[in-house]
Write a structure and sequence with these properties.
The protein has one domain (23-399). The chain has helices at residues 2-24, 26-60, 63-70, 72-79, 84-95, 99-109, 115-123, 130-141, 147-166, 181-198, 203-237, 240-254, 261-270, 272-280, 286-299, 301-314, 320-343, 359-399. Helices cover 80% and strands 0% of the residues. It starts with a helix and ends with a helix. Helix 2 (26-60) crosses helix 18, helix 5 (84-95) packs antiparallel against helix 6 (99-109) and helix 9 packs across helix 15. The chain is mainly α. It comes from Sporolactobacillus kofuensis. Residues 43-141 form the Nucleoside transporter/FeoB GTPase Gate domain.
Amino acid sequence: MNRSKSFTYLLAAGSVTTAFLMIRYPDVAIHGSVQGLTIWWDKVFPALFPFFVLAELMIAFGVVSFAGVLMEPIMRPIFRLPGIGGFVFMMGLVSGFPAGARITAQLYKENRLSKSEAERLASFTNFSNPLFLFSVTAVSFFHQASLGIVFALAHYIGNIGVGLMMRFNGPKITFEKKGSRRHLISGALMSMHQERIAHDQPFGKKLGDAVIASVNTLLAIGGFIALFSMLYQLLLQIGIINLLNHLFSSFLKLCGFSASLGPAAIPGLFELTIGDHAVAETSAPLIERVVLVSGLLGFCGFSIQAQAMSILSQAGLSPKLFFVGRFFQMIFSSIAAYFLFHLFKIESGLTSISTFAAGPALEHFSQQTLTYGPWITFTSLIIFILLMLRRIRKVNKLMK
């Protein structure tokens, strides 16, 4: 009871302090919010929206049931999760933050996952978008495309490590191998067909639902990005960030890292993109920068953590395992990056994009996304508004 009261007082004090700082430094608050919304408008929305809509349609068309039956022999013995966890894993890997949490929450609402399974699944399906790992982090920030494979493998190994750790959490269920591979595929196809028939709706209705659900989630994500961007700027204004810089620099020095990495890494605890860029621009040894950025990618920043927490909490799921997963993914990814750096013999003098065949293509795709991203966001929001107006009119007609 005392702990609950203390938490209540802490939340109240934090909200009042934030409101006071916004009044005391209005220009800083506005600048931070605009900076966060700009990132959301230009990059986050256009990058996530297509994947969110696609995930909704795949669920509606029964692809989840297909993947569930097909991946049951893999997910059960390795992660002690049903096969549909494999679908969440792959969609989270391709889509990026916070798709894993969103799809997990939706499947839990549809009673396809138990509470324990959903919480464990959400803890290790939190991936950074491959485009961000290869094109933005490796090519744009480090100017070394060969590092993309290091960042990606370290990131994925870290998440798999969390999944293997989480398999020991929750009730134990005995897995029984069923049927041959041939029967498994036919059973998966039949399950997909039955799922689609059971929830048969016109394609236009399903597409409209997918767009509305995706935009609603992305609007909430935009709010979190703006909020944490503003909080970082306010904390920087009153000197809290400088104190954190000093403490983190001392910690890194004890670990054998360059102290100059401390001030660069602190922004990454709030907003991942800013922190990764700042670390990449320091003069610290390349291996130290790679290990630290891999850790930040695993931690993924308070902004993304808050987004996932909101999604999970709204579905009635506890975010505790998700937070624990981020801590361990940060450690696992950093360790993996250290060994992968030496395994691939990455040297600081290797800066040519040609060292990774997909480098030029990824850089071009990244530039195209930045060019057309705002238009994708604008068009999607207009479609969302039109769909909502149409549905409001239908509801009003039915009420009359």
